[in-house]
Amino acid sequence: MSDSSNDNLELAMQEGKYIRTIRSFVKREGRLTKGQAAAIEKCWPTMGLEHQQGMLDLAQVFGNDNDVVLEIGFGMGKSLVEMAKSAPHLNFIGIEVHRPGVGACLMDADEAGITNLRIFEHDAVAVFADCIAEGSITTVQLFFPDPWHKKRHHKRRIVQPAFVESLRSKLKIGGVFHMATDWENYAEHMLEVMKAAEHFKNQSETNDYVPRPDLRPLTKFEQRGHRLGHGVWDLMFERIS
Question: Which residues bind substrate (predicted)?
Answer without folding.
Answer: 150, 182, 219-222
